[in-house]
# Entry
Amino acid sequence: MLEFKNDKVGKVKVEFVDRKWRVVLQNNFEFFVTELIEIDGVYHIMYTLEHFEDVDDIESIIINRIFIPIPQQIYEKMQAEKVKWVTLL
# Structure
């Protein structure tokens, strides 16, 4: 499991599980990474949170995207860990 600290969300733990990245935040909120995305040369963990609401017989989908920047050294370790597990499969 890899760990790093983020100014906004605190401690972030990242683990490669079942061919997906599982993230656990300091407040124990847990999710699987939707995508790793590069923004201005910095890789970010992206998580898409979809919330369905039914208001006045109209179903709405509210989509929130969470972006957490990853330090370069953690990104490199994530790539190495993924390659290691994919190779074992």
User: Anything to note?
Assistant: The chain has a mean pLDDT of 86. The two ends are 19 Å apart (CA to CA).
